[in-house]
């Protein structure tokens, strides 16, 4: 157990430090920005993840715990009805108080409190609370990616086109073309093993797959440009009805952050669009329309997971972009949410959303796995999302 304690403590410190490293290049003014109701300020992410450790780990399990400032729970609770009232999500950017310095000071106190708790907890408390510490770390890693997508959305609105992060993005290596074929039959999907998984990845269960093929790589900028040049955004027949309504109402003509001069806005500022790089910042509607234009379709989440776990998986499954599937986000057979407040983490969102699989270049190392189910509404474009094609065999 001493190794487990020291490992968890070290991992806690590393994850918490990474959040602050991501925020470090941003000014206090940057960290106050909220581009749209669905996004959140960087400062809010830093505070919310601290609130989570207070509310889920320390308050129920640490003897004598007292919150840093009990008034702040209302400001930084996201959607947990059982944990009290919440400030409206679209108004998070209006929270100029507490200041960034106060939020960072709070993080220091929470860090010390959790590390002390990990070191001093008895066996029974460890059994009950250490899984919640791990959940808090996984939760913070999710917010680390959201910090990057949310600040990108905010800075993209600035006519000066400032970069969120210094330096140059890493180049995209060439990926192998072609298709991988899979026979039909029975397969198993869902989390297996003893490592961490969110409740929506369970239970592991059998599914029936028809024979199909999956593209070896993601669709590239050059390929998507051909769709745009062929009038893809002007041809209603390619689009789902809801998607065409959004395209028409919002005037979409290409992926979010594409610019007429051949550049795209990135975390490193405007950069030329690399033809071979996977096209990104697509909605489900755009991914489905491209697949229709290409004479293909999007994979189901079961097909994607089966391929990713095969002996010869496609390239770019992980570390490139999240990949839209054609699967609605819904519970697996015999799904049961976690007990207590954390039961609100996933299950109550299982309506009106589409599953994405894989991970992106902004996903923290160690946070991805084949069974991971990301999910967003079909019109969302500000995430690091792309597409992989599939077709019936």
Automatic annotation (TrEMBL):
It comes from the Bacteria. Residues 178-310 form the Sulfatase-modifying factor enzyme-like domain. One of its GO terms (biological process) is ergothioneine biosynthetic process. Residues 12-147 form the DinB-like domain. InterPro entries: CTDL_fold, DinB-like, EgtB, Sulfatase_Mod_Factor_Kinase, SUMF_dom, SUMF_sf. Pathway: Amino-acid biosynthesis; ergothioneine biosynthesis. This is Ergothioneine biosynthesis protein EgtB. Keywords: Iron, Oxidoreductase.
């Amino acid at each position: 157990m001493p190794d487990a304690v020291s490992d968890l403590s070290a991992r806690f410190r590393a994850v918490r430090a990474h959040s602050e490293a991501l925020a470090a290049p941003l000014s206090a003014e940057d960290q106050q920005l909220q581009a749209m109701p669905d996004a959140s300020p960087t400062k809010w992410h830093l505070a919310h993840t601290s609130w989570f450790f207070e509310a889920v780990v320390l308050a129920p399990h640490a003897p004598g715990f007292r919150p840093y400032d009990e008034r702040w729970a209302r400001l930084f609770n996201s959607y947990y009805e059982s944990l009290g009232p919440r400030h409206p999500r679209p108004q998070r950017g209006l929270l100029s108080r507490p200041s960034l310095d106060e939020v960072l000071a709070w993080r220091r106190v929470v860090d010390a409190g959790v590390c002390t708790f990990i070191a001093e907890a008895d066996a029974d408390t460890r059994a009950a609370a250490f899984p919640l510490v791990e959940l808090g770390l996984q939760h913070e890693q999710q917010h680390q990616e959201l910090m990057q997508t949310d600040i990108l959305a905010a800075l993209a609105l600035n006519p000066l086109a400032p970069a969120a992060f210094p330096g140059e993005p890493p180049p995209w290596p060439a990926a192998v073309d072609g298709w991988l074929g899979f026979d039909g039959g029975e397969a198993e999907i869902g989390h297996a093993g003893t490592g961490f998984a969110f409740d929506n990845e369970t239970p592991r269960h059998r599914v029936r797959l028809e024979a199909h093929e999956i593209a070896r790589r993601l669709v590239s900028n050059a390929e998507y440009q051909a769709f745009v040049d062929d009038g893809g955004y002007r041809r209603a027949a390619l689009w789902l009805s809801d998607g065409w309504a959004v395209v028409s109402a919002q005037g979409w003509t290409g992926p979010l952050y594409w610019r007429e001069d051949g550049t795209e806005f990135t975390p490193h500022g405007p950069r030329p669009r690399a033809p071979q790089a996977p096209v990104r910042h697509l909605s489900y509607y755009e991914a489905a329309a491209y697949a229709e234009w290409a004479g293909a379709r999007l994979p189901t989440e079961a097909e994607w997971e089966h391929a990713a776990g095969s002996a010869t998986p496609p390239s770019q499954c992980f570390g490139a972009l999240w990949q839209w599937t054609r699967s609605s986000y819904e519970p697996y057979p015999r799904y049961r949410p976690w007990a207590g407040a954390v039961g609100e983490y996933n299950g109550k969102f299982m309506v009106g959303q589409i599953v994405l699989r894989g991970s992106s270049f902004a996903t923290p190392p160690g946070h991805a796995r084949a069974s991971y189910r990301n999910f967003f509404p079909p019109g969302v474009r500000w995430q690091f999302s792309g597409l992989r094609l599939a077709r019936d065999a």
